[in-house]
Specification:
Blueprint: H1 4-7, E1 10-11, E2 14-18, H2 32-50, E3 58-63, H3 69-81, E4 86-92, H4 95-104, E5 109-113, E6 122-129, E7 132-133, H5 136-148, E8 158-161, H6 164-180, E9 194-197, H7 205-211, H8 240-253, E10 257-261, E11 268-272, E12 277-278, H9 281-292, E13 299-302, H10 308-317, E14 321-324, H11 329-341, E15 348-350, E16 356-358, E17 364-365, H12 367-383, E18 400-407, H13 413-428, E19 435-436, E20 444-448, E21 455-459, E22 467-474, H14 479-491
Parallel strand pairs: 3-4, 3-5, 4-8, 9-10, 13-14, 13-15
Antiparallel strand pairs: 1-2, 2-6, 5-6, 6-7, 10-11, 11-12, 15-16, 16-17, 18-22, 19-20, 20-21, 21-22
Helix pairs in contact: 2-3, 2-5, 6-7, 6-12
Length: 499
Amino acid sequence: MLNKTYKIFKSGTDIRGVASEGVPGEPLNLTDEVVARMAAGFVLWAEQKCNKPASALTFSVGRDCRISGERIAAAVIKTIAASGAKVYDCGLSSTPSMFMTTVDFGCDAAVQITASHHPFNRNGLKFFTRDGGLDGPDIEAILEHAQNDDKPAPGEGTVEKVDYMEHYSAHLRNIIMREVNADDYEHPLKGFHIVVDAGNGAGGFYASKVLEPLGADTTGSVYLEPDGMFPNHIPNPENAAAMQSICSAVLSSKADLGVIFDTDVDRGGAVDSSGNEINRNRLVALASCLALENEPGATVVTDSITSTGLNEFIEQHLGGKHYRYRRGYKNVINKAIELTEKGVSAPLAIETSGHAAMKENYYLDDGAYLCTKIIIKLAQLRAEGKTLESLLSALKEPVEALELRFKITDADFRATGERVIKELEAYAAHQDGWHIAPDNREGIRVSFDKDDGDGWFLLRLSVHDPILPLNIESDSVGGVEIIKEKVLAFLRTQDGVAV
């Protein structure tokens, strides 16, 4: 069991903590000593996983650009090498590229130093093997080793600096050249104007190392230079300011497409030539088009907050199956893998946050890979005299949407949240006009007829926090307010929830 000190570092399937001073009330806890303990715990975990001593293992270590990254990477590399293992120091890297070192370099395990889109003072560790990212129980095992100060046997390992991002960029370029198959094979993006917004994260490479060598015009791209203080906007495709930034870049430069990444490039989003966001439900719809064109009738696994219109788009327009699951990118990925192992074709697992994992790409959630697939389709459609926008013309989008987040005030927030959801389900079953979704797999989802709100709500328990998020969508003006008041009338009767 994890004690209070180490339990706070577990964030789902990652380790996260405060790595830099500068934010009041958030004292530094991801110290060099703590990081070294975690790295030692990962070596012990990898020895058991691979059934080999550390001296026979090869690790890769990368980092995003946040200001504590070099310090933490140095502590991780030093600790792993001290176990006798071989270490590739990959420097500034994207998170998906670290997984790919297990494919291209044959690394037994990989570590990425990142805290995704979180503020500059945060950082963390994300781990991979050739089987993919680690799960929650694996993180707990690593942290228990750290808590107990367990250490592998000492040895004399080696450290080699490598620029793996060059290999990774070439990999993406080769995919584009092969799938576009233009007359000018090595310059398939000649004549395309594509802008990139990296948000000063690790994604700036995509413009200079992927798009430009293929002939694309990337003038008008913004915030490509890594800056761990993220001075311009949060590198997060779910952030309104970030999406406004890339929309503005597309319109001002009259680009054919814009792409945006989060800090460590495991998520992406896009903007069409008219400045319309391809994000959230629209991104899921476009990714579904790409995934199902070669696997008609296959299953798309999404998180729980996807819209009714998206379900209709996948099942009625594309002819696929929609498996609405739970929030958490690892949850949707694991469910797609599980379905595939049972013989159900599931080529895509995607969260509305922008985490998208394709079976053809090792079920790796990779924002750069997703944007690469979108750009390939853009080029293919142009050759046919069509546009990217035409793929989404049948997607019915809600007229109104709202997300509210209610804080759970009880100490045992999970028990309280589960109780509230259970009682709401019982309540809904006896309300006229409330239709409980038969295929819901997280929280409670209820739909309403046209005269009663013309939409739906989903109330669920946050994956990590003492929060009950409430998502509401309606196909009519004023419908969200009607549905919101129905739910609030119930929540106001519940103890332990701040409404």
